[in-house]
Write a structure and sequence with these properties.
two-stranded parallel sheet, 7 strands, alpha/beta, 5-stranded mixed β-sheet, Beta Polymerase, domain 2, single chain
Length: 245
Amino acid sequence: MTPEEVASRLVALLPGVEVATGISGGQGYARTTVDVPPTNWRDALLAARDDAELVCDFFDWLSAVDELVGGFDVVAHLWSTTRRHGILLRTRVPRENPAVTSVVDVFPGAAWHERETFEMFGIDFTGHPGLRPLLLPPEFEGHPLRKEFVLASRVAKPWPGAKEPGESEAGGGRRPMRPPGVPAPGEWGTTPTPAGAGGVGEGPRGGTPARPARPPREPRAEREPRTSRPERPAGPPRADQGGEG
């Protein structure tokens, strides 16, 4: 089936649903792209899996895209191992309280993908059997793949390129942004340590212990001149060397 035929078939399987279709990529990499409402997210994946013509039996991946004020696009890619075609399914959820139905019961392989998307973007997957952190420690705060999340590398130096959200158009490149509680680069390692902590904080760099000075090296003693070896006394001549009889 061509990408256009795949799109038409999926639209026919979702009667009464407002669906937008398109083609992403080109030539041998062309993919059918179908946008569905969040309420029909699970139904779209189920229809693509069970239809005798589509047979999208392989779950490839699931993630999200931060569209700022537009919300988040949840994206899943399915593949048919028998028909050799793929479908890129998308749905958009609002930025405030983003949530969509889990598809773990349709594709069990989506469990880890939904957990990662949950912790990286803060999108809730309703009905997921164990929506807990997958990659980040439990005490981590924030969602690193949201565009408003401040990257640690921007604390140390300016970031060239597009403006930060909220930055005026008249400014230069990206300015360094510092998360709450993170010291400025010039303050790192300068916090004095309480007394009695092994001398830490008393060094010239503030926070680095002073290294004791090395004692001066003693001058190397002059070596005595090597005496010549005594000559070894000559022994009697060997028979093969001849001599007096």
